[in-house]
Amino acid sequence: MSNMEESSEEKASASPPMQTAKAGPAPVAADLENQTAPVHEHGFGVAAIVNKWNRDDKLRRGSLALRGIALFFSLISFLVMACNKHGGWEDFDNYDEYQYVLAIAILSTLYTGAQVGRQVQELRTGKEILSPKMVVLVNFIGDQIMAYLLISAASSAVPLTNRMRQGSDNVFTDSSSSAISMAFLAFFALASAALVSGYKLSTHSYI
């Protein structure tokens, strides 16, 4: 009997190590739980990239709309001033200020027309005509220069028109005022486009 009791006691003493061996897989489960963290981080990175693409697309479409508005007003300013010829002193090409307005309106029409055509082509085909670095630089510099020329031409013609209106307010002065107003509106559109171009220039890491 003593031998049987000793063997039972040995079995009872051997049972705790077997229980601790079963508890071994617990750290593995913990490791599996820890592996989910990079998945969440990766998902956050994808969401950030998608948000950046959406923001860039909105900026691209916004700049296209602003340049389209500038193209419209520049074209109207050009046509109104070019048709402002009524004989005698009521002829725009007798005044340097009005010739300046006409010349800048033509340049603005050509510039904004080229920009709108390029952007529409890129949106339609999904392919960029110029390199991204070149596009950002051309947009920023071109918008800045053309906006300055528009405000310069319109501002130079305002005093002349005001002096004419003091003596005679007729269709010639009204047409001149309309052309100048269109030039101012084109300036505001291009100035806003220049702000968008400046923001894109400052946020692109490859510049």
UniProtKB/TrEMBL annotation:
It is found in: Cell membrane. Keywords: Cell membrane, Membrane, Transmembrane, Transmembrane helix. Residues 57-189 form the Casparian strip membrane protein domain. Residues 1-26 are annotated as: Disordered. It is a multi-pass membrane protein. It holds the Pfam family CASP_dom. InterPro entries: CASP_dom (IPR006702). GO terms for cellular component: plasma membrane. PANTHER family: CASP-LIKE PROTEIN 4A4, CASP-LIKE PROTEIN 4B1. Belongs to the Casparian strip membrane proteins (CASP) family. This is CASP-like protein. It comes from Heracleum sosnowskyi.
